């Protein structure tokens, strides 16, 4: 018999993986709880038209494991988990689908708390909330992106200080890939700090806005890797850093919001060898989950900013240790997380 789940690279000792289905609503979903050492598992619910069930399993395990690392390094009292609903978010959504997910979460008794993610919205989460209290990111004030952007900004400041020996971003050039919810707000902060922006996106509207409001120079989507910049800020897709793009990169720092930026684990070492300082994705982009976690735990929103700003201090420690031990920053970030959740 071939091992399908337990031998998956990302299975990595998941505590629990639950397959949920409901005939009436057509729900087909997977809830993955990677680790609850630090608290209930928290991570968003992704809705995606997966080409196969195996791909859905692989995705939920990868994302759930990643949340354990992100939440641990951010110093949050929560573990890591994630859920996926198999279906097309444009055509297959119904309130009943999310109510059925809520019932499934309720059966787990709070071991996993969900929120919005790619393909789901605060409105969908409101339907989940009719059946369970184990859901966050609700309401008008639920958008975590501004906090993710703030975390990226303080992360970029820490990287510049460590690697370029500068206290200011004034006059530095940042190549921003993706001007969506996080990327645009991050670019706005960079512009306000005196950085020059070179930007790429597949949406022309965002580019025009950046050109007018932020004096940004626009380049083609594929040309962003070749820009003569100090910082490369991936804020669109995952896995943009690979042997090919690293060879083209002129930037000396990578500091962006995208999840899973390294195409493969060895890319962290490739960046180090090239003298590029990489701000590990799950450390620098934790601002959003910090905001969602505070909301869920009923902690005051006024304290969120200070917690998000700690991302800069955490990164400074990661950079210093990586330098001392002559290893990649991604390896150090993994070790910092593991020391917290592996007890
Ligand atoms: N929103 C958050 O709080 C948050 C938190 C942690 C991580 N992230 C990650 O940060 C990234 C951005 O998130 P977001 O919420 O801003 O998403 P978004 O969908 O609002 O923005 C993504 C932007 O990238 C653009 N884009 C798509 N393909 C592109 C390409 N090939 N080249 C250049 N641009 C392209 C899109 O047009 C869009 O403007 C994602 O990888 C996301 O997983 C987001």
Automatic annotation (TrEMBL):
Belongs to the Glu/Leu/Phe/Val dehydrogenases family. Residues 142-343 form the Glutamate/phenylalanine/leucine/valine/L-tryptophan dehydrogenase C-terminal domain. InterPro entries: Aminoacid_DH-like_N_sf, Glu/Leu/Phe/Val/Trp_DH, Glu/Leu/Phe/Val/Trp_DH_C, Glu/Leu/Phe/Val/Trp_DH_dimer, Glu/Leu/Phe/Val_DH_AS, Glu/Phe/Leu/Val/Trp_DH_bac/arc, NAD(P)-bd_dom_sf. This is Glu/Leu/Phe/Val dehydrogenase. The keyword Nucleotide-binding applies. One of its GO terms (biological process) is amino acid metabolic process. The active site is at residue 82. GO terms for molecular function: nucleotide binding; oxidoreductase activity, acting on the CH-NH2 group of donors, NAD or NADP as acceptor. SUPFAM superfamilies: Aminoacid dehydrogenase-like, N-terminal domain, NAD(P)-binding Rossmann-fold domains. Pfam families: ELFV_dehydrog, ELFV_dehydrog_N. The lineage of its organism: Bacteria, Pseudomonadati, Pseudomonadota, Betaproteobacteria, Burkholderiales. The keyword Electron transport does not apply. CDD domains: NAD_bind_Leu_Phe_Val_DH. NAD(+) binds at residues 178-183. Keywords: NAD, Nucleotide-binding, Oxidoreductase. SMART domains: ELFV_dehydrog (SM00839). It comes from the Bacteria.
